[in-house]
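Standup, Tuesday
Yesterday: got the pipeline producing structure tokens again.
Today: sanity-check two examples.
Blockers: none.

Example 1:
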Amino acid sequence: MAADKVTGLPARIWAAVAGGFIALIGAVLLAGGGYLIALGGSPYYLLAGAGVTASGVMLVRRRPAAGLVYAAVLAATLAWAIWESGFVFWSLAPRLVAPAVLGLFVLLVIPTASKAILKGYSAIAVALMSVSTLAVLGASIPETLVMGQASVPAGTVSAAPAASA
């Protein structure tokens, strides 16, 4: 059906440019992940790079399942980040912010895909995972602010002048 497709030239160009950008980011992750594995590191970056690259290529081809692939990458990223660094904001931030923001960028490209039903599911999945990732990051802030801090700031008790009545 013609109503299910965005067939205009600007939509095709946007899908090609933005999807290519996402695929390029995935290729960098993929190459870096391969190098990290050669050094004895985590396979996460290789797998995430493969998923992001696949999602980018699917966006270039205007396939609505691209969002589902990226949502799966975000779910795995969230699980890996919590497993690796715990619920500490400063450890989670570098692992979650860029993938979540990239997920919001993927949302800008999904409307160029065809097949409205799968496109809707894809957009919902990416949106929920991006917001969930940022929510977990935000929920970790209170834990970080109180961890290892004194109840009274150093130097304020002894340096404070005596109160006069």
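Example 2:
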Amino acid sequence: MRILATAIFTFTTVFMGLQTHADPTLTNSKKYESFDAPSGKGVTGSVEGRKLVIGNARIMSDAGITLGALVEQAEQLRRDGATAIFVAIDGKAAGAIAVADPIKATTPAAIAALQVAGLRVVMLTGDNATTAKAVADKLGIIEVEADVMPD
């Protein structure tokens, strides 16, 4: 999540016009005034006086940001098997981004073969429980542990 959130942070600053150069190496870009990537939550930072918070609901709550209607929008994204990443600008929720990894065509059969062989298959993920269940259902996995933090 940290690498993805960092990429989204960079994109957001360019999209908002807070950077004058879209150089992916950031060597010619305006400097961030602050940047932090709390493990398992997302990223926070400031660019040209604008405060950005990008990540999961936990980081938004920690920052005192109310998500309002974005909560239901994110839940729908999760029911579709995507991870919802929230974006807040200057302390106000600005949107949600859906990110999903495609399931390889061979994965359901591989998991089924493990289960037939008598192995216990458990999905452990940092994703929200709704996202995890949606993906597990597609794969035939019964046991799911969601919201697992990296540490």
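Quick observation on example 2: Confidence is low (pLDDT under 50) at residues 18-28. Strands lie at 34-36, 42-47, 50-55, 83-89, 92-99, 122-124, 143-145.
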